[in-house]
């Protein structure tokens, strides 16, 4: 295994941070390839908890290289806040263990502002974004007016491109939305300070990652968000603005598909979602509330409460298909412990027909009725399980059914937030 991918298989927050940290043990390099500081990845090591947004979750291991790839949208302000937060927790960050792509797009103050005013303008049709400027930054990238890290490394180029952008955005902010104009001079001054802090870390990361794979080093690509938030295969428009599926690795890290060996989908034992958009198995009842409290389902980035519902196999099958998943990691199976009965959605009923794929049209999706299978629950002893034999019988039955219905094996089971609450039951 020299290059492998860790991806969210649902709507994000599946435990990618925990699993990346766990799997980083066997990797030399950990690479973020999409998204930005909309992500919130939690890692718990011994009695310390770390909340990561931009910096890869391999950073807590000594001597691993952590990479922000070209597909990431990078907010320098958020980056330096996170670097300082980690330094205060005793984590060392140097160009020996952290590098940034010269092709990554920069999140600018006007992106954050546009994110907020666009959301307000959508009114009741808002997406529920994290307001970190992600969508507006990717919009500029595609529109070809974005500013990249390499631009920031050249004062004159940056100053000129920034001027055009600020003039353009000020027109929109003031004339269309009635907001306040931004100061070009202030942004220039602020970003030129970031430039000097970033300079030692900036590289052509595609070359760095490629060379390491060629040398036989192990590379882990850490996804952010999840398959159902993907710009193409998610519940559009209630999605994020990047490719969160396996294909995103190739464009977002500059690595060809033939260099990737496997892709692991992280799936929570139930389903959660933050922000708006369809959610067929959502539980708007006491059970949903019980799962939220037991699973501490509150957003790492925004603090919003996560919507909770039963596991949805239609989603997992779709994720496995679009990313060619080689296995699933099932997390938070301990959270369901204590429920007398647990349900799993095996398909949808749409206009009298049973379907097992995720419809593109939200109108069709709105008419889908989940079909459930019911399972007997298991007890709290599961959080102490350290091998397959220790897992309660009913939880084994539940997981076997996931494998049967998705046609994809489960490689790892996670029964708590800590590194040691993890067991490998099959080959990754
Ligand atoms: P990510 O965005 O996919 O990295 O996930 P988040 O960090 O946003 O949310 C997952 C939460 O569940 C975090 O608080 C983790 O510490 C926690 N967690 C991860 N795996 C497990 C598990 O197996 N059991 C329990 N109880 N918590 C877990
Ligand atoms: P991790 O990596 C869960 C959601 C937002 C919103 C939509 C668009 O921690 O799993 P954006 O700010 O990206 O334009 O918001 O996507 N979203 C996430 N939900 N986990 C995340 O990241 C998310 N990142 C974005 O709530 O619905
Ligand atoms: Mg998260």
Structural features, described:
The longest helix has 22 residues, at 155-176. The protein is globular and about 65 Å long. It has helices at residues 16-23, 76-88, 109-122, 134-143, 149-152, 155-176, 184-198, 205-214, 247-253, 286-294, 313-323, 362-367, 393-406, and strands spanning 3-8, 29-32, 41-45, 48-52, 65-68, 73-74, 98-101, 105-106, 202-203, 219-222, 262-268, 271-273, 307-309, 311-312, 327-331, 341-350, 353-355, 369-376, 410-414, 422-424. It has 428 residues and is of the alpha/beta class. It starts with a strand and ends with a strand. The protein folds into three domains: 3-104 and 202-262, Adenylosuccinate Synthetase, subunit A, domain 1 (Adenylosuccinate Synthetase, Chain A, domain 1), CATH 3.40.440.10; 106-198, Adenylosuccinate Synthetase, subunit A, domain 2, CATH 1.10.300; 267-424, Alpha-Beta Complex (Adenylosuccinate Synthetase, Chain A, domain 3). The strands form five sheets. Strands 9-7-5-2-10-1-11-15-19-20 form a ten-stranded mixed beta sheet, with helices on both faces. It is built from 13 helices and 20 strands. The structure holds guanosine-5'-diphosphate (GDP), 6-O-phosphoryl inosine monophosphate and magnesium ion.
């Amino acid at each position: 295994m020299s290059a492998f991918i860790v991806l969210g298989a649902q709507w994000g927050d599946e435990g990618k941070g925990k699993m990346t940290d766990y799997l980083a043990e066997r990797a030399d390099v950990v690479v973020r390839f999409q998204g930005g500081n909309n992500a919130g990845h939690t890692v718990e090591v011994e009695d310390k908890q770390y909340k990561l947004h931009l910096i890869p979750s391999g950073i807590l291991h000594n001597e691993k290289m952590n990479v922000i790839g070209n597909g990431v949208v990078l907010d320098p302000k958020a980056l330096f806040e996170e670097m300082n937060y980690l330094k205060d927790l005793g984590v060392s960050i140097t160009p020996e263990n952290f590098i940034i792509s010269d092709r990554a797009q920069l999140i600018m103050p006007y992106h954050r502002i546009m994110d907020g005013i666009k959301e307000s303008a959508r009114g009741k049709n808002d997406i529920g974004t994290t307001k970190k400027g992600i969508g507006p930054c990717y919009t500029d990238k595609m529109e070809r007016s974005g500013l990249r890290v390499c631009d920031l490394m050249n004062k004159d180029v940056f100053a000129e491109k920034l001027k055009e952008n600020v003039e353009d955005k000020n027109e929109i902010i003031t004339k269309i939305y009635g907001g306040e104009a931004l100061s070009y001079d202030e942004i220039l001054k602020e970003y030129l300070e970031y430039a000097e802090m970033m300079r030692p870390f900036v590289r052509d990361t595609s070359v760095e990652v490629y060379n390491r794979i060629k040398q036989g080093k192990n590379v882990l690509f850490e996804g952010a968000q999840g398959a159902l938030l993907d710009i193409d295969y998610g519940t559009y428009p209630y999605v994020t603005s990047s490719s969160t599926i396996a294909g995103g690795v190739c464009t977002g890290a500059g690595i060809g598909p033939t260099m990737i060996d496997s892709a692991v989908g992280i799936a929570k034992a139930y389903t959660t979602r933050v922000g708006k958009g369809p959610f067929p198995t959502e539980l708007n009842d006491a059970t949903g509330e019980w799962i939220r409290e037991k699973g501490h389902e509150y957003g790492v980035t925004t603090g919003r409460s996560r919507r909770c519902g039963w596991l949805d196999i239609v989603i997992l099958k779709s994720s496995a298909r679009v990313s060619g998943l080689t296995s699933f990691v099932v997390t938070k199976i301990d959270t369901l412990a204590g429920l007398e009965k647990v349900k799993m959605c095996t398909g949808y009923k749409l206009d009298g027909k049973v379907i097992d794929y995720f419809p593109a049209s939200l109108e069709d999706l709105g008419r889908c009725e989940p079909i459930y299978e019911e399972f007997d629950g298991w007890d709290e002893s599961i959080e102490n399980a350290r091998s397959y034999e220790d897992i309660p019988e009913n939880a084994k039955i539940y997981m076997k059914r996931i494998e049967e219905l998705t046609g994809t094996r489960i490689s790892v089971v996670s029964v708590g937030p800590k590194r040691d609450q993890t067991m490998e039951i099959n080959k990754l």
